[in-house]
Write a structure and sequence with these properties.
17 strands, alpha/beta
């Protein structure tokens, strides 16, 4: 005989585990998750991993040189943090390693946005921001970061929101934008940091694709105590499988975030490889420059065949195309999928109607993809002219010496 079922605590709902009942949080009810799938024979141009033969050689060589203690012993981060601090032009006390940028975003939401109670989000943004905010029951106020057709970057809505939000909040902006590839100018980023500081807000900058277009916000971290940067080595050092990133921030925030123990989730191979790869900046810059060249050749071919299309600049290790006929985005994705190439149509992303994104592989693969896109036609009557966008200010920050 069992007693009456106790009332579930507020904010929970009871579930049955083969007759055993237990309360779970209601915040997960609107969330979904899907494990990655292995797709043999499919070229993945959707996930935006760095795919380049030079990075394959560089990472492969350093991976082969790792000793067993570097792999099997619990990692000590001292040497890697010194290398990364030099890489970013910061002090070691301003670099906190996390197991991937998604984990870093979750840490920011948990440790910073949850106590503040609200997240101001420039959109579109990486879906992890809203996902973790929902888990932590943090109120999200989203504003568009792009406008027009073809889309252009527009920081004004977020600047206005910073000015009109009365109590301290965490504001998040992605630069370069993903999945758009658009960049805010350095003057706009400085204005965002200044406005956030004046009104008591933390500004978090997600720069996961920054190295591909020579954009670094580390100088803002050095100048503004209210700026936190999410930097992904998984993307820029071709270490997606090792899931490694960093939060760059003021030492007081570093100490606070470190109490959530992200160090214990970072694996030894990732730490050892970072220590070896970070000092090779010039070699990485050669790789990123060649990625830009591959992208330009690919874009030139596609636009020569489709003069009404536009590519959103400066991009990163991907190219986001816009067509004046919105259905073209799905048509391009489906056509490439029929040839076992995965890309992403952005039709359902606010502000990116008519856009689709293609990440980059090596030259032969991108030439093949460009030829396949020759066969995609716009299904409708496009306007006779579409003026190109011309940013008023260069989007590139200088890296610290």
């Amino acid at each position: 005989m069992t007693g009456p079922e106790p009332d579930a605590p507020e904010g929970t709902h009871p579930v049955s585990l083969d007759g055993f009942r237990f309360p779970l949080g209601t915040e997960t009810r609107t969330l979904t998750w899907q494990p990655r799938e292995l797709r043999p024979g499919v070229l993945n141009l959707k996930s935006c991993e760095l795919q380049h033969p030079w990075s394959d050689d560089l990472v492969g060589r350093e991976l082969a040189a790792l000793s067993l203690p570097e792999i099997f012993a619990y990692p000590v981060q001292d040497h890697a943090l010194k290398q990364l601090a030099a890489y970013h032009g910061l002090d070691r006390s301003q670099v906190l390693l996390t197991p991937g940028s998604g984990y870093g975003i979750g840490l920011v939401v948990d440790a910073l946005a949850r106590p503040a109670g609200q997240l101001l989000l420039q959109e579109p943004a990486f879906e992890a921001w809203r996902h973790y905010a929902t888990l932590r029951r943090v109120q999200v106020t989203g504003v568009p970061g792009i406008t027009g057709a073809p889309p252009t970057a527009d920081p004004t809505p977020l600047i206005d929101l910073l000015r009109t939000t009365p109590r301290p909040a965490v504001a998040a902006v992605t630069n370069p934008g993903s999945p758009s590839g658009l960049c805010y100018a350095p003057s706009a980023m400085r204005q965002l940091a200044t406005t956030a500081r004046e009104h008591g807000h933390l500004l978090v900058i997600d720069e996961c694709y920054g190295d591909f277009v020579d954009v670094s916000h580390a100088p803002l971290v050095a100048q503004f105590p209210n700026v936190v940067v999410v930097h992904s080595y998984s993307k820029t050092f071709a270490l997606a499988g090792l899931r490694i990133a960093a939060l760059l921030c003021h030492p007081v925030l570093h100490e606070h975030l470190g109490r959530f123990l992200p160090e214990r989730a970072v694996g030894a191979p990732a730490v050892a490889l970072l220590r070896r790869l970070a000092p090779q900046r010039e070699r990485w810059r050669e790789i990123w420059r060649d990625v830009r060249t591959i992208r330009q050749d690919f874009v030139d071919h596609v636009l020569s065949t489709h003069p009404s299309w536009r590519v959103l600049q400066p991009g990163a290790n991907f190219a986001t195309f816009w067509s004046p006929v919105p259905t073209t985005a799905d048509a391009a994705r489906d056509h490439l999928a029929a040839h076992h190439i995965r890309t992403r149509a952005l039709t359902d992303v606010p502000g990116l109607r008519g856009c689709f994104r293609v990440s980059l592989a090596d030259r032969p693969q991108m030439r093949r993809v460009a030829r396949l896109l020759d066969d995609v036609t716009d299904r409708g009557r496009p306007p006779t002219t579409v003026p190109p966008s011309t940013p008023a200010d260069s989007p590139h920050d200088a890296r610290p010496a």
